[in-house]
Amino acid sequence: MLGPLNGMLSLASGHVSLVSRHFKRRIYLKILLALCVIGAVVFGCVLASVLLAEAIGLVTTLAVMAGVFLLAALIVLIVMAVEQKRHEARERAQREAEKRLAKIALVSALPALKGGGLLAAGAAAIALMIVLGGRSGDDEDSD
């Protein structure tokens, strides 16, 4: 009887680990993005100032530096988008595994409910309805 419970605890632990890794990656990527944007703004401001006062050589150098930081920011945004899609795919797989385990636990508990009569059958039917269709609509609104 503890087999399904251990499986559920293992899945819950895996889900917590998945979410914490996701948030940690997102924080690091957002910090990197902020640094890139700050660099682009700083060099953009320096570029605007130098355009008014300096010759073409220095302006070209500053333009290249601002462009490099903008390109770096775009790359970080692309990496963040890819990481988000991967996280969502892992999260969907995790939900499916939880759903499969709940179905297995319910099916394995059915023989124990045989002698319980009408009340046990009703409880099993309610549990089956929850497992089969209870969470699909709610998951869309959580993002």
Summarize the structure.
The protein has 143 residues and is mainly alpha-helical. It is built from 4 helices and no strands. Helix 1 (2-53) packs antiparallel against helix 2 (56-113) and helix 2 packs antiparallel against helix 3 (118-133).
Global mean pLDDT = 77
The share of residues in helices is over 70%
> So what's the oligomer here?
single chain
Low-confidence stretches: 135-143
Shape verdict: rod-shaped
Number of helix segments? Answer: 4
How can the largest sheet be summarized? none
> Compute the gyration radius: what is it?
27 Å
Q: Which series of helices and strands comes N to C?
A: HHHH
Structural class: mainly alpha
Beta-strand content: under 5%
End-to-end Cα distance, whole Å, is: 35 Å
Number of strands: 0
What would you say this structure looks like, in words?
The chain has 143 residues and is mainly α. Helices cover 92% and strands 0% of the residues. The protein has helices at residues 2-53, 56-113, 118-133, 136-141. Helix 1 packs antiparallel against helix 2 and helix 2 packs antiparallel against helix 3. The two termini are 35 Å apart.
Describe how the helices and strands are arranged.
Elements: H1 2-53, H2 56-113, H3 118-133, H4 136-141
Helix pairs in contact: 1-2, 2-3
